[in-house]
């Protein structure tokens, strides 16, 4: 018996080989999010805000995140492109899940390996929910035990002062 997922993945692969536009392929895959275990366990996501014409921005940074309430949740500087894009009305993004190393290399090189990772398009919103921040910090303590001691006060103090914002990426 052919399952829907097998049909979609096989059909998408065939479409890609036939030269069907990538946007169609991405839309077909968006219905099948990366496996929950990958979203729960991966160290990083790579996020690119989408411009008003649907093109990816050139910002593809790897970030710590939590998979909470069926959303990717991050804390970032209010001056980051991810936060500024929302302020400019750009409320969609592409999210890749996995650990593929740093995106920016030395001497202006770029690591594009993340593009092979499972991805989905998402709607972006800012959250002021302190209980969500608390749950994110609890998750970070488990997920990033070696570094969270240095970063948790920065996240909390920055969130309280407005220097950092919490962003939520809900699968579209």
Summarize the structure.
With 172 residues, the chain is an alpha+beta fold. The protein has helices at residues 4-17, 22-30, 36-41, 81-87, 130-143, 148-161, and strands spanning 45-49, 62-63, 66-68, 71-77, 92-97, 119-127, 164-171. The model is unreliable at 1-31 (pLDDT under 50).
Task: Based on the model shown, name its key terms.
single chain, 172 residues, 2 domains, seven-stranded antiparallel beta sheet, 6 helices, disordered N terminus
Number of discrete domains: 2
Strand content: 15-25%
Molecular shape: globular
CATH class of the largest domain: Mainly Beta
Strand/helix succession: HHHEEEEHEEHHE
Radius of gyration, CA atoms, in whole angstroms: 17 Å
Write up this protein.
The chain is α+β, with helices and mostly antiparallel strands and 172 residues long. A seven-stranded antiparallel β-sheet has the order 2-1-5-6-7-4-3. It has helices spanning 4-17, 22-30, 36-41, 81-87, 130-143, 148-161, and strands at residues 45-49, 62-63, 66-68, 71-77, 92-97, 119-127, 164-171. The longest helix is centred in the N-terminal third of the chain and has 14 residues, at 4-17. Mean pLDDT is 77; it is low at 1-31. The protein folds into two domains: 1-32, no CATH class; 33-171, Pnp Oxidase, Chain A, CATH 2.30.110.10. It is built from six helices and seven strands, in the order αααββββαββααβ.
Topology of helices and strands:
Blueprint: H1 4-17, H2 22-30, H3 36-41, E1 45-49, E2 62-63, E3 66-68, E4 71-77, H4 81-87, E5 92-97, E6 119-127, H5 130-143, H6 148-161, E7 164-171
Antiparallel strand pairs: 1-2, 1-5, 3-4, 4-7, 5-6, 6-7
